[in-house]
Every structure is written in C-alpha cells, then in structure tokens.
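On to our target:
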Amino acid sequence: MSPESEIDVEKAAEATLFFSRVVVEGKSQLHSRINYLALINLHTDVESTVQTIKDIVETEQKDILERDTLLLLQARNWRFHLVACGVMLAGISSGKSLNQLWNILQKGSWVVPQIAATVYILDPQFDSRALEAIEKRKLKEQSLVAIAELLKQARNTSFTLKQEALIKSAKVNDSADSGKIAVSWAEKVRSQFNTTNANR
C-alpha cells in the first residue's frame, strides 16, 4: 500500500459515522463517539461505552454501519480497529468484516489480543481458520500467540509438534503476553455485550 493510499484509508475511517471533527481552541480535532480507551482493558467506563455502541447500532442504518465498520478495519490505526470490534460484538458482523479482522492479524495491530478475541467469539469457522493460519505461518507473532492461547484455553486444542514449535518461537518475541490478554478480554467482553460464541 502506497503512502498516499494509506492516508486515504485513514481519512475514510475518520469520515465514518463513528467520528466527527470538533474545533478545540481553534484547532480541528477528531472526536470519537465511542470511548475506545474503555474497550482496551474493559476496566473503566465500560457499561456506558457498551451502551453507546448498542445505541449507535440500534439507531443507525445497518448498511451504513456495515460499510463504515469495514472502512475502520481497512485503516492502520488501532483506535479504529478497537471501535470496529465493539460494533461487531454489538451485532454488526459480516463475512467481509471477519475476513478483514483476519487480515489485520496477518499484518499486525497494537490491539491484536482484542482482535483475536473478537474473531474467536464471532467467527463460526474460528477453529479451522486459526489452525490453518498457524500451520501456514499466516500470522504475526503476537497474533499467533493470542490465537493459539484462545484455542488452547477455550477449546482444549491439541497442537502438532510443528505447531507447538511455531507457537513457542512466537512467544519468545511477544513481550505483551498477548495470549493471556486475549483470553481475559474474550471472557470480559462476552459478559459486557451479552454475546455467546458463534461456533459453540
């Protein structure tokens, strides 16, 4: 992706219904309708943030929500990724948006554990897609660790020796403990959004 097209996708994400421009002390600033910081660890301002997301999903047109969610996922900014995950967990999930989450897991994002947890909850093909991605080395190291831990903790998945070696190697370079964060976030977010796994 060229620098110009990267700028274009960021601008397109900023122009979605989830954001607006406000003038503060004479300067234009991007304002988010959704408190993405509350979604990172689900510690503070969570209930009101989840309610805001649900209100947006209930009041805006579904086709526009789906279009704008995809635009967020095409950008590189982790804030956009997190907002999109929240909206998808509130019911605006499609094959296209799930595919885009998997694409981000290949490219990387600062919020990989949250993205991994979202596909774990929403994608009915999670198990097969996750194992294939691990086997074919389609994931960034942080993504691989998060996906593997979700499979292991929540599914009791048995990995092959080759897969175990790949996971072990990825963990060496994952200083964020992505697997633990992904499992914890999945548990918390399910209760907040009252959602169950699509593949259970």
